[in-house]
Amino acid sequence: MKLGRNTYTTPLRGASLRSTSAIVTAIVAGGLFIAGLVTWRYSGVAAAGRSWCGVVYISAYFAGAVGVIWLCWFWLKLARTITFMTEALKSEKPLFVGSSTNSLINELSEVINGRIESYSNLLERLQKQVKDLQIQVQLSRRQKGNTEAIIYSLHDAVIVIDEFDRLLMANEAAGKLFNFDFINSQFKPIDSLIVPDKQEFVDFLRQSRQSEVEATRHEIEFLQDERLKVLDCIISCVYDDRQQVCGVAAVLHDITREKEIQRMKSDFVSHVSHELKTPLASITACSEMLMDGEAEDEETKIQFYSVIQNQAKRLNRLIEDILNISRIESGLIRIEKSPTSLTIIIEEQLQMIKSYAEEKEIEIITQTPIIHDVVYADKDMISQVIVNLLSNAVKYTPRGGSVRIDTLVDETSGVAQVTVSDTGVGIPKDEIEHVFDKFYRVSANSNQAKGTGLGLNLVKQIIEKVHKGRVFVISEPNVGSTFGFELPLAASHAVEAV
């Protein structure tokens, strides 16, 4: 390459640097020459004359001196070129002239521009990828927030642990169930958060993780607040990208109520079967004896007919009670409410129960009728309630006792109250809360009279579910019982309707 016509002078600082480098090089090279001669002179090599060892010594020092001179020359040339190009670039003037030189520069420029353009395109793609990643991160955070919000809002307990049995996530329901702080317990060992009496759940988590089963279902029973709780536990393993188990997620659903309903249904079927079989057995036995001609005289036939009739009535009452309770519970019963006087209903039902009371020499005591005892109710249903309470009182009152029915109106509260008190056998305290349950009969009084255990439950269903009232009972063994109910007055109902 040829330099252009307009050459550039090197600054004083560059000339000074070259002079200094030449002096240092001369000193170092001369020192090496002198050191070689001295070494050759005083090391006994001179005595050897032109021996091979002497040639090697001298050659080494001379080669070192020449190498230093060459390095200095190369350094000066490089420094001069760098300085020259730097000053030329600062002065914004062409460095070289000539077509070949310009062609080379143009090629280099094109290559550099091409690289710059490719790097610019790469930078744009990277920036776009960064923006896409930022959007994905924001979406992931939003999805995570939505997922956590859903999990925290669930009524079922949710627990997620990692492969080291450390808690990753839990909701409030899980914290209440296992009694730990679900917010500040992250990354703590799960077995340190759950009390020992609930370790069955922890063992189930570990077994599911070790077996690597996708989904497992198991019922777990816990004793909480002195009450047995049954939980339906579903556990699923969580897998990573390599299909390795990286955690376990558990959902616990409280099925205590479902279990109780299932048990009640089973008990209901069992009781109904038993109650239906008893009158059917009597009807079947009497009818067979009549068919076989075992009742020869008219009096025996009349007895058989009476048994069949009574058991048929009993069976009909049982079926009616079951159907009425079922209709009320399912909401399919037909209700016709209207303003009705409790005094009139009570007087009508007393006429039906008096003959039964007279057979047992039981006195029925009533009060002076109350005028303002009108309630908004279904008359037939309230009549059935009063009949059930009166017959129940007479049934469990010994011969010679008494049954009293009273009505009380509280205009301040807007309710009318009816109570039926007897001097019967009473109910033990530990069984009072169950007297309104289906088919429940007080064990101590089961021999006093026959019954299905549906009468009081029907009373509760009619008063509380149909008429939004209240039933209650007060009893003391060997003293007597008082059953009663409260209903809203018709006047208060009219005010609420307005």
What is the fold's blueprint, element by element?
Layout: H1 12-42, H2 52-91, H3 99-153, E1 157-162, E2 167-170, H4 172-178, H5 190-193, H6 199-211, E3 215-224, E4 227-239, E5 245-254, H7 256-291, H8 298-330, E6 337-341, H9 342-359, E7 363-366, E8 374-378, H10 379-395, E9 402-410, E10 415-422, H11 455-466, E11 470-476, E12 480-488, H12 490-497
Parallel strand pairs: 7-9
Antiparallel strand pairs: 1-2, 1-5, 3-4, 4-5, 6-8, 9-10, 10-12, 11-12
Strand order of the largest sheet: 2-1-5-4-3
* Helical/strand content category: alpha+beta
State the helix count: 12
Low-confidence stretches: 1-12, 44-52
Distance from N terminus to C terminus (CA atoms, Å) equals 112 Å
Gyration radius (Cα, Å) is 54 Å
At the fourth level of CATH, the homologous superfamily of the largest domain is Histidine kinase-like ATPase, C-terminal domain
Q: Using the coordinates above, name the CATH class of the largest domain.
A: Alpha Beta
**The biggest beta sheet, please?**
5 strands, antiparallel
Number of domains: 4
CATH fold call of the largest domain: Heat Shock Protein 90
